Amino acid sequence: MPVMGEFIRNEDGKEKQDCERNAAKRWLSKHADEYKWLKPTLLGDDLFSNYPICKAIVDEGLSFIFTCKEDSHPWLTETVKNSYLQEKEVKAWNGRHHAIYRYRWLGGVEIRDSPQTLKVNYIYLEIENGKSGKITYRNSWITDKALSAENVEHTASCGRARWKIENEHNNIMKNHGYNLEHNFGHGEEHASEMYCLLNLLAFLFHGILMYADERYQQARKKAGRRTEFFAVYFRGGLMYGLHDGWDSFLKFVLTGGPG
Prior knowledge:
This protein has a domain at 20-159: Transposase Inhibitor Protein From Tn5, Chain A, domain 1, CATH 3.90.350.10. The chain is built from eight helices and six strands; from the N terminus they run H-E-H-E-H-E-E-E-E-H-H-H-H-H. The protein has helices at 20-35, 51-59, 74-81, 152-175, 191-212, 214-223, 226-240, 246-255, and strands spanning 41-44, 63-67, 86-93, 98-110, 119-129, 135-143. Helix 6 (214-223) packs across helix 7 (226-240) and helix 6 (214-223) packs parallel to helix 8 (246-255). The radius of gyration is 23 Å and the shape is globular. The model has no long low-confidence stretch (mean pLDDT 87).
């Protein structure tokens, strides 16, 4: 489910380019209290695994799991290489073949070489194809969560879940009927942002309906692809039929006739 976003935009009269990091800080100051009751863990790529962002998240009482690349964190990487890491190896069937999952982790690593620093916990994962011996995946993260042999698998899977969010949220909105890839540069002030927020709102409610509305589930199943549901059933149903309400409209979609 999507949460309230924060737009990246340059303010009038300011030459400095706005960026994702600044937007993340603004999001925290505006919405951290609103979502704190959910005890969320924020996920992000290597761009966010720096002291100011991680410190701001911890100060707000939230948690994070961020990708951490060696090239952009030389101090942390050197510390990890010169330390004794705990290790765990798991053999499992991944749905296609047997795989070997190797986890390494280290607690209490300083995120940077500076008097103002933050201690984080480091995780490394590599996956080997059990048949060919080829390494098919490797990645590393930093987190404020305590790590142990009991939870390192789950924590790493949470870090990897960012790509699940990319596929089931961003990719759907761009390529499966919401047309978010179109140019939303309309208006002179906030029109483009309003159109984008309406898209997010629609996506949110469609997700709720998929969980809670049996007729909506049936209508989606009948249409098959999401793009076909929007283009044919949804648009056609609104264009060629009068409906007293949502139930009437869904009946129209399911039966092909007026409710």
